[in-house]
Design goal:
flat, 59% helix, 3 helices, mainly alpha, 0% strand
Length: 54
């Protein structure tokens, strides 16, 4: 395993991983309303467009 510093090119994968984890792995434990508050789709889109990390 190699540990390295964050690169802006990592943003897309990190944002997608976070969103998908919240909305799939955690879906059985939280309501849809809670999932949307935790990881809203519009926030995912904004972060991908601006290149900002989560």
């Amino acid at each position: 395993m190699e540990i390295r510093e964050f690169k802006n090119s990592d943003t897309s994968q990190i944002v997608n991983l976070f969103y998908e984890t919240v909305h799939t792995v955690n879906a059985k434990d939280y309501s849809q309303e809670q999932l949307e508050a935790w990881a809203p789709k519009d926030e995912k889109k904004r972060k991908l467009q601006t290149g900002r990390s989560p």
